[in-house]
Design goal:
25% of the residues lie in helices and 27% in strands. By secondary structure, it is an alpha/beta fold. The two termini are 25 Å apart. It is an enzyme of class 1 (oxidoreductase).
């Protein structure tokens, strides 16, 4: 199999790059290791409502996300923040009206962030998209790229002029072999780049009524007891069902070992913080990103506590001379880690490829 540009990774960055190339009429092939597109974006439906189990927000001053929403006519709405906040002390004591709405002013998309993934994928030729294909090796010793991908133990060779790795740098370092091998500095640069949100887990509790709103609460909460340490309203733009979601503060290994107990404690926590009506959610869902090897590696199991300084190191940027481009959100210099960063990375990759487009020279 042969193509001009091989895109590895069907998350937002990879799909956005494929969209750029498709509109330019340029030949490409996109392969994705998982059985679905979206990467860290995952929107699922429960009782007729769409809920984000991955990223849920973008912000003013992030023009690429706003432009995509406008292009695909996806309604944008503000994060619900009307009402009091709730604060839980380490001893379990609950206070009302303390703290601040950390996500107030952020934007969400009707139908969830997955609506952007769906819209981008819908506009692409399905023949050019292949799922369940994991990149295992890259030979860049000649004038072109020879990539090997694996599907359930069966290897396939794809030859390309360019390969764009729209996947977390640590996943590349741990799972892809290079011939000739990358030097120690390049491998270290890949390993040193934290995968944003890869160590995180979210719990979503879905209800037929917004009980917290009826009680004059915004759904925003902070807790020093847990298991959820930060909680927000995750309800759809209009109508029900309604939901709260929380970032889990329990370490990844403990989450895996004590899942049932953790979920029981999560319901107890919601009841303690928001009222007895919260005791029986229609759905209670855990999405643990640390368990997905195509996204999180062992060193990601400790989530980052502050936003890393992202951007593509110069020694990795230099590999574009060998036909290799890195384009996950972690490579974006301005919005690294955000949805906007994935689009920024795709934009930079498209610009690099445009400089070498044989149709433009």
């Amino acid at each position: 199999m042969q193509t001009d540009v091989l895109i590895v990774g069907g998350g937002l960055s990879g799909l956005a790059l494929a969209d750029h190339l498709a509109r330019q009429g340029r030949d490409f092939l996109l392969v994705e290791a998982q059985d679905r597109l979206g990467g860290r974006i995952l929107t699922q439906e429960f009782s007729g409502g769409a809920f984000d189990l991955g990223p849920a927000w973008f912000w003013p001053g992030q023009p690429r996300m706003a432009a995509l929403a406008e292009r695909f006519q996806i309604p944008v709405f503000g994060q619900f923040s009307t009402g009091d906040l709730v604060y839980q002390e380490q001893n379990g004591t609950v206070q009302r009206g303390r703290g601040y709405a950390s996500m107030e002013g952020s934007y969400r998309l009707a139908g969830g962030i997955g609506s952007v993934v769906h819209a981008l994928a819908k506009g692409l030729d399905p023949v050019k998209i292949m799922t369940n294909k994991r990149l295992t090796s890259i030979d860049h010793s000649a004038d072109n790229i020879t990539a090997q991908v694996d599907q359930n133990g069966t290897a396939q060779i794809i030859k390309a002029n360019w390969i764009v790795m729209a996947m977390p740098p640590r996943v590349i370092a741990d799972t892809v072999s290079f011939e000739p091998a990358l030097d120690a500095g390049q491998m270290q640069a890949l390993q040193d780049t934290p995968t944003w949100m890869a160590g995180q887990a979210k719990i979503i509790a879905v209800y037929d009524q917004p009980h917290w709103r009826h009680a004059g609460l915004s759904g925003d909460a902070m807790s020093h007891q847990g298991p959820m340490v930060e909680i927000h309203d995750a309800s759809p733009r209009q109508g029900g069902p309604y939901a709260l979601f929380g970032f889990v503060g329990v370490p990844a290994d403990a989450r895996a070992q004590h899942k049932d107990e953790m979920m029981r404690l999560a319901v107890t926590q919601l009841t303690t913080m928001f009222g007895p009506e919260m005791a029986n959610p229609m759905h209670l869902v855990l999405q643990d990103w640390a368990t997905i090897p195509h996204i999180a590696r062992p060193q990601d199991r400790q989530p980052v506590r502050s936003h890393p300084r992202y951007g593509l190191p110069s020694n990795l940027r230099a590999l574009s001379a060998r036909g290799m481009i890195f384009a996950s959100t972690e490579t974006a210099p301005e919005f690294g880690g955000f949805l906007e960063g994935a689009l920024e990375a795709a934009e930079h990759a498209a610009s690099t490829l445009a400089l070498h487009d044989p149709m433009q020279t």
